[in-house]
């Protein structure tokens, strides 16, 4: 069987987890790796993933450092560097112009037309011109709060409204995700971070809602989002953050999509480290004919590569 040749772009917590998976998968082989952190440049990919493991792949600082002898035979780039389409558009276009298919963990790339239509158009045109594909994928967005919901509506004769919630434990996640959730801040710092745009909560609600609406045939007139701090009553700690009582342990993020003069879609995503008397889970309620209610407990896992700035 021919092996699929993989280039890894981004070796943070999520990207490294993806790379470990590839090492253990039959039919996949890592042929190159890119990471912006200077501390990882020149290292063997296998050694970075697991002490004593040698892959023969040297970590490079950027895509331009890869020779055509590497990119030419490669099949796909597994891209895990950032959350927003505008942050990754140049990376993705560079890859597709080299004739490579791309899967990216960038949350907004699950449905980039919602927030970055011009960038989405550029990526789409480049991919079509080079006869390759670009996919934004992840557990959420990309599956639980959009694709799974759309699939479940397939049994409905009529859909009137949708509500879904994902209760998530942030404990396994890396520093980038924790910062964007405001973990470790005071309530006052949380409010200031939300106002400044540095604390964003979950990335991907407009994308998920737009994907759902398009599939059902709804037109959303507006999307409203609320972000509130989850304040801890106890001491909590992960390898990346210490949270004392009275500090923020997570973010309660809710988005509401309105159209036809009413609320059509409500998505809820409260996330915190070391949940206190709260069980993780995914919950979907479809108001229609027939109504549908689904729960997954504990919540659908992100997997062994549980983070960086990626899909939660």
Question: Could you describe the 3D structure shown?
Answer:
- Helix 4 packs parallel to helix 5.
- Mean pLDDT is 93; it is low at 303-310.
- Strand 5, helix 5 and strand 6 (134-136) form a beta-alpha-beta unit.
- It is globular and about 55 Å long.
- The protein contains 9 helices and 14 strands.
- The chain has a 6-stranded parallel sheet with strand order 3-2-1-4-5-6, sandwiched between helices. A 6-stranded mixed sheet has the order 8-11-12-7-13-14.
- With 312 residues, it is α/β, with parallel strands linked by helices.
Quaternary class: single chain
**What characterizes the major β-sheet?**
6 strands, parallel
Helix content: 25-40%
How many strand units?
A: 14
Give the neighbour order of strands across the main sheet.
3-2-1-4-5-6
Rg for CA atoms = 20 Å
Q: DSSP helix count?
A: 9
Approximate shape: globular
Provide a brief overview of the structure.
By secondary structure, the chain is of the alpha/beta class. Helices cover 26% and strands 29% of the residues.
Keyword list:
312 residues, 6-stranded parallel beta sheet, globular, 9 helices, disordered C terminus, 26% helix, alpha/beta, 6-stranded mixed beta sheet, 14 strands
């Amino acid at each position: 069987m021919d092996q699929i040749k993989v280039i890894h772009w981004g070796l943070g917590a999520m990207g490294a987890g993806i790379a470990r998976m590839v090492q253990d998968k039959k039919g996949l082989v890592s042929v190159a790796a890119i990471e912006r952190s200077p501390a990882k440049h020149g290292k063997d990919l296998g050694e970075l993933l697991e002490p004593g493991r040698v892959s023969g792949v040297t970590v490079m600082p950027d895509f331009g450092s890869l020779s055509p002898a590497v990119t030419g035979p490669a099949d796909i780039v597994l891209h895990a560097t950032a959350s927003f389409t505008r942050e990754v558009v140049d990376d993705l276009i560079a890859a597709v112009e080299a004739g490579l298919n791309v899967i990216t963990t960038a949350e907004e790339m699950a449905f980039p037309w919602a927030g970055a239509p011009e960038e989405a158009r550029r990526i789409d045109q480049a991919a079509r011109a080079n006869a390759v594909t670009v996919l934004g994928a992840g557990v959420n967005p990309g599956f639980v709060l959009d694709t799974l919901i759309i699939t479940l509506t397939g049994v409905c004769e009529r859909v009137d409204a949708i509500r879904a919630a994902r209760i998530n434990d942030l404990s396994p996640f890396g520093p980038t995700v924790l910062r964007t959730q405001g973990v470790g801040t005071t309530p006052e710092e949380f409010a200031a971070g939300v106002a400044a745009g540095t604390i964003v909560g979950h990335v991907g609600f407009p994308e998920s809602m737009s994907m759902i609406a398009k599939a059902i045939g709804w037109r959303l007139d507006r999307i409203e989002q609320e972000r509130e701090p989850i304040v801890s009553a106890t001491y909590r700690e992960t390898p990346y953050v210490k949270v004392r009582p009275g500090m923020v342990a997570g973010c309660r993020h809710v988005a509401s999509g309105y159209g036809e003069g009413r609320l059509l879609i409500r998505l809820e995503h409260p996330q915190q480290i070391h949940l206190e008397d709260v069980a993780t889970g995914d919950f979907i309620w479809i108001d229609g004919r027939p109504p549908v209610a689904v729960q997954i407990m504990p919540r659908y896992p992100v997997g062994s590569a549980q983070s960086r700035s990626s899909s939660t």
